[in-house]
Write a structure and sequence with these properties.
- The chain is an alpha/beta fold.
- Helix content is 24%, strand content 21%.
- A seven-stranded mixed beta sheet has the order 4-3-2-1-12-13-14, with helices on one face. A seven-stranded mixed beta sheet has the order 5-6-7-8-10-9-11.
- Strand 3 (117-119), helix 4 and strand 4 form a beta-alpha-beta unit.
- The protein starts with 5 loop residues before the first helix and ends with a strand.
């Protein structure tokens, strides 16, 4: 577990209070904010695949799914994390929409996929029925989406844990009472976390070398992530893979700064522990974004792929794989004294 820094916590609290005060008055949502925990102590470090922007129902999605199955042949992951935009172009209409078969059940039918999928929502999912995605898990056990935002805990072999916090970032983009409620929930949950690692999952990245988000969103969320010492944030939305450790986050443009270097620089001094992984290549090459060369990024690749993440008490290992499941690059987050 990272040490909580009082100065950063104060900044995070101020950001939350400001958002709450400015937001329009409306009843904030009340959600069951936990998915099933994985508390049985495993024999080996838990491992998961993370990917977003996959739900095309096309050949690119099928190729990445086959690549994951190939990579999982020797040792399947323990679970999967979905980073949003689960169904293009307009989400699903109901819990029996045909896209459940063509965009989820059929592409992920191999035996290695018979595991929990912890799901985040993306902006394309909000174009359809969010309630349908919440309801689907009632009759399909591997689809874990108990609420638009929620938490779950994963045990490590040592008996320590990793705490996951899954966000609905589409509802953080605009400054509303719902956004304030979600940020308040996140700050409270992070403040109570006793996990060895704190991992935040969402759709819109707080920073990347591309410009697909909003600066105001970053300025709302990033102080909370930095203030509570989050170790790793996993995002999609940008249809490529990218690794941004603290050194890169201090110099890279905000994912939404619209070219404003001063906006991107604000708060950079607090980014001492946060690492950002973007894994938005689940839809494959036919859904991929081009990448503009940017020296600030530690590593980037496009053409489809996913992140393969392993958790131990000593470190988090992130291996980025291409559409065929072959390793492209490997990074580590080393922990301090537990």
């Amino acid at each position: 577990m990272n040490a909580r820094r009082p100065g950063a916590l104060f900044l995070a609290a101020c950001a939350l209070l400001a958002a709450a005060c400015r937001a329009p008055r409306a009843a904030p949502p009340a959600f069951d904010s936990r998915a099933p925990d994985r508390l049985e102590r495993p024999a080996a470090p838990p491992r998961f695949f993370a990917f977003g922007d996959f739900g095309t129902g096309g050949k690119g999605q099928a190729r990445v799914a086959a690549g994951m199955a190939a990579r999982a042949q020797a040792t399947p992951p323990d679970f999967f994390v979905l980073l949003g935009d689960n169904f293009y172009p307009d989400g699903v209409a109901s819990s029996d929409d045909s896209k459940w078969r063509t965009h989820f059940e059929e592409p992920y039918a191999a035996p290695c996929f018979a595991r929990d999928f912890y799901v985040a929502l993306g902006n394309h999912d909000h174009r359809g029925s969010v309630q349908a995605q919440l309801d689907y898990g009632a009759s399909h056990a591997r689809w874990q989406l108990p609420a638009p935002w929620y938490a779950f805990t994963v045990a490590l072999p040592s008996g320590a844990t990793a705490d996951f916090f899954v966000l609905d970032t589409t509802q953080l983009v605009d400054e509303t009472q719902v956004a304030a409620a979600q940020l308040s929930w996140l700050a409270d949950a992070l403040g109570k976390s006793s996990g060895r690692w704190q991992i935040v999952v969402g759709h819109h990245p707080v920073r990347s070398t591309q410009s697909r988000g909003l600066a105001d969103y970053r300025e709302r969320l990033e102080p909370v992530l930095a203030g509570f010492g989050v170790d790793l944030a996993l995002f999609g939305h940008d249809h490529f893979s990218q690794w941004l450790p603290p050194s890169a986050l201090r110099s890279v443009s905000s994912s939404s700064s619209s070219g404003s270097s001063s906006s991107a620089a604000r708060g950079a001094g607090e980014l001492d522990e946060l690492h950002v992984a973007i894994a938005g290549g689940g839809g494959g090459a036919d859904n991929a974004d081009s990448i503009t060369p940017n020296a600030a990024a530690t590593w980037s690749a496009t053409g489809g792929g996913f992140a393969d993440v392993t958790l131990s008490e000593e470190r988090i290992v992130i291996e980025f794989a291409d559409a065929d499941g072959k390793t492209q690059s490997r990074f580590e987050i080393a922990g301090g004294t537990p």
